[in-house]
Amino acid sequence: MKNVKKLIAVAMTVSLGVTALTGCGSKPAATNSAGKGSDEPDTITALLPPVSPNYQKNFEQMSKDFHEKYPNLTLKIEPASWEDMTQKLDVQVNAGSPPDIAFMGSDGISKYADSGMVMDISKLATDEMVNDFEKVPLDYMKNAKGLYGFPAYMEIHALGGNKQYLEEAGIDWKSIQQNGWTFDQFREAIKKGVVTANGKPSRYGFVFACSGVAAKDYLGILTKEAGMPSPFTKDLKYAYTSKNFLEVLKGIRTLIDDGSMPKELSSVNAGMRWNMFLTGKTMITGKGLAVFENSANQNNKKIDAKDGSAVKDSIKVDYIVLPVPTFGSNKQQATPAVDGYVTFKGKNSKNAEHDKNVVKAAYFLASGKVAATTNNDLFVAQITKSGAEAAKSMTITRNQDNAKAVENLIKSAAEARPDIPTELGAKHIKLEDQVIVPKLQALLANEITPQQMYDAVKAAAIEAFGEDKIVKD
Prior knowledge:
Number of domains: 2
Helix content: 40-55%
Order of helices and strands: HEHEHEHHHEEEHHHEEHHHEHEEHHHHHH
Low-confidence stretches: 1-32
CATH superfamily of the largest domain: Periplasmic binding protein-like II
Structural class: alpha/beta
Strand content: 5-15%
Largest sheet: 9 strands, mixed
Distance between the termini: 25 Å
Mean pLDDT: 90
Shape: globular
CATH architecture of the largest domain: 3-Layer(aba) Sandwich
Radius of gyration: 22 Å
């Protein structure tokens, strides 16, 4: 990325007063044609998980608003949980009938691009659509020269702390928010958060969701802070054969052996992790997104109101954003989460008019009122001018220390890598699913050592990419 400072705009400047763009209403450039179309009835399908706490509650209104904007078009939304989203999508893709649009992480685009199932909209999206987005998050939706949908938000994967527990442990969280911390400092800090009762931990220093594919998140945010911002170096060599990868694996095991994390970490899913945080069973949780502050605030209100829908046995929590610790002398390289509306080649994709309609629907979901409502619910910045305009009439209240912490982390966010060829990205995902995640689960369960996992990953990488295409240091 030539100008990392552009990242700051994602969090700080998109709220400037700019007249909302109407997307499809104006005449597009000659090379783009999504703004033109027939009046023939058409249905666009979308597979969408609970992106924000209130997101799925708005599906009926979203479909209604879309139909009012385009009277000949119908947006048919299929809801999915986060747990079964990938499975549902894979089943539909493998059956040759994917949805027209699916909400997913930008890092998964190469998986479906390699199979030829995602739709490149670079020649279908109007200039007005494209220019509505901040450049940095939009770049995450690209692979090589293709554009495969529109981003919904750009947020940083961080950690979340219980303010009271942090202060009781003597941890200067304000300094850490602005200056970061090393892995060794983090290790000593979370030891102070452990509380035992009857010889057993009643509160851990740190808990991360690691059940199933959630373990990828844990490894992913740590590797970036160890000098590996991407699975591939700029010269396209596989990075996870670096000695730095082994140091990360050793660190993961150490935190469990210290007693700062549960021995059963491999069975902790996202729901359990959040429940442990809200019930005071951990001082720090991960991964943490800005929406967690909102969720904690809402639960606090329920506790005050003696609302029975508050999490059972939960306590009031002041949620604090914390950076992921860095390894050795490596600089902070935060993990950006850029998720969005990926366009697929559905059963009607050979119809040129239908393809244009899919682009209209994807843009509708990623911009304007829909984006403003969703991103405010998530406590994340608006990344479209139209979303920022729509958000002017919406209120949002959050901890300003947390807001500043996120702004600070955005400055160090790892850059998008659309230069990684589709086939390499797909090979990494396959290696991740077949080797890295299973071996990491075994490491967490203390069934193998860090060295054994590293050796297995290195051997698989040599087989996948070749001896001369891996990092050797």
